[in-house]
Structure formats: C-alpha cells, structure tokens
Q: What sequence folds into this?
C-alpha cells in the first residue's frame, strides 16, 4: 500500500513574528517527512506552533527560514501563480469551521475548486457522484449550507477538498466544531479515504479521539517537535488512544511538568 | 485622549470610505445649489419683469429643498449605516473594554460632527463653485450677453444648508446609534449587524416576472396611448403600474438567477461563473426592493434630465428667434400725448420706425334671429383651400369627421388656414393699409398700395406657424392662380375683391397686447367704412434705433427706454416682457427638473455602490476561502467586476426601457413648447447616454474600491497572529 519516497519534506523550518525587540518564535527548527499514504497527526497545546506549521505547509505563510518540499519541489519559494496552482489542486484544505460559501449549494461548493482550476465536466461529475456516495451527502447536494447540519457541512467540505485529487489533504482541527457523533463519522470517512485510496492526510488536532485515527502523531511544544508516536501494526484504536493520552498528560498536565 | 480618538476615527472613516464621504459632500453641494438659486444671474434678471412668478418659483424651490432634504436623509442614513457596519467590531471592542454606551454615543456624534464639518466645508466649496458655473453658463447660453454675470455667495443659502445637513446627519446617526445599542456585544464583535443572508429561501418566483412584465406593459401602454384620457389622471395609474411592475420584475429576477445557476451546470466547471452568479443573485434577492427603487430612480432621472436639457438647449433658438417679432415697444392708445411724448427730446433717441397701428373687428351686416349675417363671402376661397388639403384631411373635412383641430406646425398649411378662417372670417379683424405700410417700411419693404377693390390676408406669425415669413406657399399659389384666371375668391358686401399674394408678415406689437390670428388688410377707406367702432383699438409701435443697438446692445437701451416710459406713466409693453416670459418658462421648466434628475441619479448610483460594497464587505470571507481553494487574484477580480457590471446593468437596463417610453410620452404631451422636434430625440438620447455614462463612472469607482479590497485579502488563520 505505502509507496516509497517522500511526499512532503519539512526541513528545519523556522517562523518568527514581530520585530527584533518583540520577537516571537513560533517554529524553532522543525523537520520531518511524510510518506505517501500516511495519516499524520500533529498535536500540541495552544501556542505550540502547530497551526503555524500547517500554514507554512499550506503556503498561507512563508517560513522565516527552512524549506518545505512537496514531491521534491520547494513550495516555500513559489510565486503567486504557482501558489494558486498548488492550492486546491495539489493540496486540499479542510477547515475547522468548514468555510463553505453560504450562497452556493453543496454541489456548487464541491465543484468550486474544479471550476477554478478547470476540469472536464464529465470527469468532475463522475468524481462528484463517487465522493457524494462515499461521504453520504448525495441527498443534500442541492441544499444550501444554512440547511445542513454541522457534520453534513464538514463532509461537503471534505468532498470539496478531495474533488481535485490533491496529493495531500491538510486538515486543521476538522472536528473542532462538530459534536461527538458527527466527529466520529467524519473521522471514519477520512480514515476510509486514507485506507482505501491511499490518500495522504496531515491533520492538526487537539482532540485525542480524532488523533487516534492517525498512523503517526508528532507532538509539538514551544516550536519544536519533542515526541513522536507511531501506531503499531494491529494496534487497536483504543490502545493507541490511551498512549496518546499519556503523552498529552506529560505534555501539559502531567505531574512531572508542574513548575 | 478622547478628542484625539475622535479626530483619528473621523480621519480613518474618510480615508477608508471615500464613497461615504463623497455622499456627504454631494448632499451638501446639492443643498447649497438649490438654496442659492435666488442669487443666480438669470433670476436677478427675471425679477425685474416677472417678480411675482419668480417669487412663486423660489417658494417652489423651498419645497424642492424640503423634498431633497427628505430624499437625502435616506441616502445619508444608508451611507452611515454602511459606515457603522464596517466598524461594528470596533464598537464591540470599546464596549468590551468598558466604555459606557452613553460615551460611545457621544463619541459617535463627535466623530459625526468632525466629518460633517469637513463635508460641509468641501460641499459648500463645490456647491458654491457649481452654482457659480451654472449661473455663468446659463447667463451666457440663455442670456447671450444680455444678462450680466456677477459673483454671488448666498449667506442664507449657506446657513440653511448647514442647518439642513446637520439636522439629517444627526438624525441619521441618532437613529443608527440607537439601533446599534440594542445589539448585544457579541453581535457587534461578530459583525452581524445585518441579518445573515438566507439564500435557501429566495422570496419570489418566475410568476413575479410574468406579473411584472404584465404591469410594466400596461404602464407603457397607458403612457404611450392613453395618457390624456380621464383628464390625465391615468398618469398616476401609469406610474403606479410601472413601479409595481419594476418591483415584481426585480423580485422575480433573483429567483430566475437562481434557476440559471442550477441549470447552467456546464458553467459550473468554467472559472468562477457559478460563484459570480450566486453573489449577484444574493445581492439582488436580499435587496430586490431597493434595486427596484434605484431602477425607478434611474428611469425618472433619464426622463427629467432629457426633458430639462432639451428645454434649456432649445431655449437659445427659441428665445432669440425674433424673425416675426419686429417692434421693441408698444404704447397703448392713440392719444396725442403719446405721440408727442414719443417724439420728445427725451424719448427720441430711443425711437425709430414709430408707427400707429389701428385695428378693429368688422361690423356685422345684420342680425337675423340672433345669428350674425356677415359682409364677407369667402366660400370660393374656402373651396380652394379644401381642394388644397391632402386627400386624407379633405375626406375627413368633407365628411364632417373632423370636429376639432389644433393649429400646429405639423398640420398642412391649408388645414391651419381653413381652421383660422372658419373662426375669424365672419367678422374678421381689419387693419388699415396705412398701418401695415408702416410695418413694411420698418422692414424695408415697399408699401402695399392696394386698389380700392383689393385687400391682403394677414396671419399672425406669433400664433400661426409658418416656415417662411414672406410667403405662404399654398395660399399664394391659390391666389396667384385665381389672379391669372381673373377669378375673385372673396367678396365684401357684395363687391368682389382681389386678394394680394405674397405679403410679408410680422408680429403686430412688441408682445401680446394684440392677440389675433388673422386679419384683413384693407384700404383705409374700407377700414373706415366697415370697422366696428366699439372694437377699435390703436397702438404706437416703435423700435430701438439700429445704431443704438449696435453701440450698446439691445437690452441696455431697452431698459433705459422702459424706465423713461414708466416714469411718464404710459401703459406700454416691451419685447423684454416677451423675452422675460419665454426665459421664465425656460428657467422654471428646466431648473427643478434638471436638479431632481441629477439628484435621483446620484442617489441611485450611491445606493447601488454602497450596496455592492456592503455585500463585498460582508462576504469578504468567501473571497478568502476562494484564495485557499487556489483562485487567483485575477480570477476573483474578474468575477467581482462582472458582479459590479451586472449590479449596475440590471436596474439600468429596465430603466432604459422605462426611460425611453417616458421620453417618448413627454415628447408628445409635455414638451410641446419645444418647437424643434427634430432635435428633441437626439438631445434626449444624448442626455440619456450621459446618465449611463455617469453610472459607468460610479461603476468604475466601485470596481476600483473592490479591487483594492481583493488586493488586501490576506489569510489570517489566527486573529492574534499578524
């Protein structure tokens, strides 16, 4: 299933905000790779730099120093035309608060990236149907976001981020605005997409429950990676969840950490 | 600290929202222009002749001012609401930081005051400048050197402008402020001042479009065909139907756009078309009423501007057309003092071509059973005139179908003459040959030298349209033919009379003291014999000497002569009155109309512009999402420009149709006074195009502002990270 070669390489990325006297270092030399077909989670407390990291990969921000390579190409040096091409086509972005356009129907929202980048109608239609069936949103395609539940909205957003066959899906707290049941459904779907079609996913999350679906988790604190967890072959999600909780306890609330 | 915050916020409002500030300035300028009308050169000039009418006009202008105040109140309310919405988050923050609501009100009003003072300064400057330009342009264009220009600044206009503007500005702010504080802080922080758009349930459907079409069609039909029915009351029906129709059309248009978006799936994969369509639909759907109102305003403004402009532009030729008007002064009565005075040393320098005009109606031969028996038998002439009618008119005339007719330039000459003679020929007006010879001499023509059995037909060019003052082609042909064949077409008291063809015709008096359509010019002896002494009237006519005119222009000596005559206590009239009256019609007919036209246009444009930018602001996040999905800036700009285009085009296109119908209707019912009909449509079209041009400028300004918004889009995932 897992192909060889690195899909994404993050090399010694630094990111700081503000001027000299008031410098905040959000990322302080982060390096890791993602292999094709991986489901990578990034966890860390508020202010640890995980969202900054995701934004650097999503080209929303430029790293102060260091490189981000996608399929060997340095995307942190892209100009705006290449960036537009990269966004939406090479990466799919799943937002915490869905970011559906509320004046477009579900179908129109899903087709938006396709129309921005241009794709054959027949191909787009087939792809849409396939995704709608898999994500169980076929019957709400012609509804407007205001007429959908939160879970439905996020699944429509997921369809939108998958329709242009991106190399990697970047998910920023995708379950953050969902209730437990919807969150579980969504994670099951993402997991299914990852397993069945080998889609690479990079997800930032607070939620150990959501993170337990990942195959590997990086823990970030104060701008550096300080721990990594891999889900063992045949390890159940419950066991992996317990291990995540242990790390989190050390990270934030563990008694060893009390100052 | 407080004052610095106020000043800084006010400055930021101006910089960030130029359209808001421009709206305020426009309001101020328009108030000043309307209020300073009394100081315009033309009005000063007219006051001397038509002071009563001018007072009425200025009173009317006060009503127009009140109306403008009322209209602009809504515009300012709208502009302020837009401005406050932009800042709702900031207000929420102030409240979060513990600012008391009362203090926030005071701060808002103080900011309003600073902005208002600057808007007043700018607006008064621009208004004063525009008023001056208008005054100068009108006095040059219409007054053609007769009316002098003087620089004027109206203190009272400034005063009332300031009062009126501050009043509506603070009323609007107070209303909006009150509303602001009913909001929860949460709502303010989340910028949810406006109701979230609910696109799922678009009100209206395709039936609305059908009903709208039907109502509009009805309105157009009434306007074009039946406006004059029921004493013109149908105008209101046409306006009501038209407005209702426009409203329904716009409501239906939103739904139609939704259908279009669904149906055009093929477009779904081509650029941002679906997004563009949906944005546009949302803009129309949620504000169909105000879009309809702007459409109506644009249509009205087209009609008003076209009407006012053609009145003003045709004024030049209309006012200075002195072809037929010969005399500058007419003094009533033939009493010897008049002649003595007019030849006296004081008056002599102003008098040339002094001539006594005598006129009176012919006696009736006898009265039989209450009906007059006339001396005149013109049946042969009548026959010839009927023969000379075009076929269609002749049939109608002979069959008695033609019941009434108006004398107009469009009628064939023979029909006009028949109509006039039917009314006048039984007891016609008589003018002695000697009186008319004096007139002919003044224009350098030989005297008539009528034989004892000869006369000439006089038609008054002031009332009877004629292309050529020296010839009436149809009449002259009939008369020449009769002379050749030795036929006599008219007889008086049994005596056959020759009719002299090709008599030059001019106005008989300086203005209107003699209102006759036609007369018989007869030898003096015949005048004595047949004139009805009870109807006899006489006038002294004279002109300002040519030399004096060349030295001082016409108006200067005319005013001087007028003053002398006035002080001597004579009853007289002058060409000035004629001119002044015509000028008054022009001014009264064009000023208000043009003013309201431009006011409507500016309102419509501002509403459309602010509405679009409000939506742009509210849906800013959507553009950010598009960026995330990989849309290029150029793609978004293209979509946005298309939205601007459609936003302006939709109300405009309907307005163009309504405006065209309106202009056509006005051309046939309202603009009758405009003689040069051939020029009317090009002028109207040119000004309708100008309306479109002004809208295009507004559209371009909106697109530029929106362009900048898109340029400034930056994805900020966390508000605390800049």
A:
């Amino acid at each position: 299933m897992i192909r060889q070669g690195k899909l994404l390489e993050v090399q010694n990325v630094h990111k700081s905000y503000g001027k000299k006297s008031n410098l905040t270092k959000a990322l302080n030399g982060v390096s890791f790779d993602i292999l094709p077909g991986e489901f990578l989670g990034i966890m860390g407390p508020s202010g640890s730099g995980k969202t900054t990291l995701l934004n650097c990969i999503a080209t929303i921000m430029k790293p102060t120093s260091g490189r981000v390579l996608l399929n060997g190409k340095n995307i942190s040096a892209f100009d705006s035309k290449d960036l537009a091409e990269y966004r939406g086509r090479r990466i799919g972005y799943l937002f915490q608060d869905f970011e559906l356009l509320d004046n477009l129907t579900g179908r129109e929202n899903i087709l938006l990236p396709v129309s921005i980048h241009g794709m054959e109608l027949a191909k787009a239609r087939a792809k849409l149907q396939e995704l709608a069936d898999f994500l169980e949103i076929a019957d709400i395609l012609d509804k407007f976001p205001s007429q959908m539940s939160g879970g439905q909205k996020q699944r429509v957003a997921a369809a939108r981020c998958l329709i242009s066959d991106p190399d990697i899906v970047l998910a920023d707290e995708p379950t953050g605005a969902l209730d437990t049941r919807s969150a579980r459904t969504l994670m099951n779907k993402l997991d299914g997409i990852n397993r069945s079609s080998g889609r690479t996913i990079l997800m930032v999350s607070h939620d150990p429950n959501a993170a337990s679906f990942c195959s590997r988790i990086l823990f970030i604190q104060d701008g550096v990676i300080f721990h990594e967890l891999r889900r063992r072959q045949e390890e159940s999600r419950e066991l992996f969840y317990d291990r995540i909780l242990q790390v989190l306890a050390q990270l934030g609330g563990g008694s060893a950490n009390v100052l | 600290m407080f004052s610095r915050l106020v000043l800084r916020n006010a400055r930021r409002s101006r910089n960030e929202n130029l359209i808001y500030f421009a709206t305020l300035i426009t309001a101020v300028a328009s108030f000043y222009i309307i209020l300073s009308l009394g100081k315009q050169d033309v009005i000063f000039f007219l006051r001397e002749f038509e002071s009563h009418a001018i007072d009425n006009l200025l009173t009317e202008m006060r009503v127009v001012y009140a109306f403008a105040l009322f209209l602009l109140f809504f515009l300012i309310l709208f502009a302020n609401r837009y401005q406050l919405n932009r800042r709702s988050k900031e207000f929420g923050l102030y409240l979060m930081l513990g600012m008391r609501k009362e203090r926030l009100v005071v701060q808002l009003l103080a900011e309003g005051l600073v902005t208002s003072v600057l808007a007043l300064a700018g607006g008064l400057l621009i208004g004063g400048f525009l008023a001056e330009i208008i005054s100068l342009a009108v006095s040059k264009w219409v007054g053609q050197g007769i009316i002098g220009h003087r620089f004027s600044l109206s203190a009272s206009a400034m005063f009332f402008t300031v009062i009126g503007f501050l009043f509506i500005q603070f009323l609007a702010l107070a209303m909006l402020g009150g509303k602001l504080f009913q909001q929860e802080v949460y709502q303010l922080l989340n910028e949810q001042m406006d109701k979230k758009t609910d696109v799922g349930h678009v009100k209206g459907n395709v039936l609305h479009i059908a009903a709208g079409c039907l109502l509009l069609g009805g309105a157009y039909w009434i306007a074009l065909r039946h406006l004059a029915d029921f004493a013109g009351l149908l105008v209101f029906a046409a306006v009501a139907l038209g407005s209702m129709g426009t409203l329904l059309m716009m409501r239906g248009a939103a739904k139609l756009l939704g259908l279009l978006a669904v149906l055009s799936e093929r477009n779904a994969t081509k650029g941002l078309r679906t997004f563009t369509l949906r944005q546009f639909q949302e803009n129309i759907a949620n504000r169909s009423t105000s879009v309809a109102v702007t459409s109506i305003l644009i249509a009205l403004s087209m009609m008003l501007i076209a009407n006012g402009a053609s009145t003003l532009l045709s004024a030049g030729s209309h006012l200075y057309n002195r072809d037929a008007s010969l005399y500058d002064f007419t003094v009533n009565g033939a009493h010897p003092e008049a002649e003595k005075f007019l030849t006296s040393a004081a008056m002599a320098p102003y008098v040339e071509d002094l001539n006594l005009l005598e006129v009176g109606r012919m006696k009736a031969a006898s009265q039989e059973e209450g009906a007059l028996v006339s001396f005149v038998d013109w049946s042969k002439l009548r026959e010839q005139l009927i023969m000379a009618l075009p076929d269609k008119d002749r049939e109608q005339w002979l069959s008695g179908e033609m019941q009434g007719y108006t004398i107009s330039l469009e009628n064939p000459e023979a029909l006009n003459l028949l109509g006039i003679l039917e009314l006048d020929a039984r007891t016609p007006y008589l003018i002695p040959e000697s009186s008319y010879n004096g007139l002919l001499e003044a224009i350098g023509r030989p005297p008539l030298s009528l034989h004892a059995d000869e006369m000439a037909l006089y038609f008054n060019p002031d009332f009877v349209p004629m292309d050529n003052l020296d010839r009436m082609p149809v009449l002259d042909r009939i008369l020449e033919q009769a002379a050749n064949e030795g036929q006599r077409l008219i007889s008086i008291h049994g005596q056959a009379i020759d009719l002299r063809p090709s008599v030059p015709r001019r106005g008989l008096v300086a203005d209107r003291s003699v209102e006759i359509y036609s007369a018989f010019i007869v030898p003096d002896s015949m005048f004595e014999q047949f004139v009805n002494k009870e109807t006899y009237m006489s006038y002294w006519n004279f002109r300002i000497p040519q030399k004096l005119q060349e030295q001082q222009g016409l108006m200067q000596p005319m005013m001087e002569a007028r003053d002398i005559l006035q002080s001597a206590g004579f009853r007289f009239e002058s060409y000035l009155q004629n001119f002044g009256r015509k000028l008054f019609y022009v001014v009264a007919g064009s000023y208000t109309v043009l003013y309201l036209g431009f006011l409507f246009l500016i309102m419509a444009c501002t509403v459309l512009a602010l509405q679009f930018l409000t939506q742009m602001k509210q849906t800013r996040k959507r553009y950010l999402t598009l960026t995330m999905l990989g849309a290029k800036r150029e793609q978004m700009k293209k979509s946005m420009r298309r939205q601007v285009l459609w936003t302006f085009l939709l109300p405009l296109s309907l307005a163009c149709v309504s405006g065209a119908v309106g202009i056509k209707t006005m051309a046939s019912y309202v603009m009758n006074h405009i003689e040069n009909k051939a020029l009317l449509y090009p002028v109207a079209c040119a000004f309708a195009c100008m309306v479109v041009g002004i809208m295009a400028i507004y559209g371009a300004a909106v697109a530029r502002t929106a362009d900048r918004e898109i340029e400034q889009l930056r994805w900020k995932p966390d508000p605390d990270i800049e």
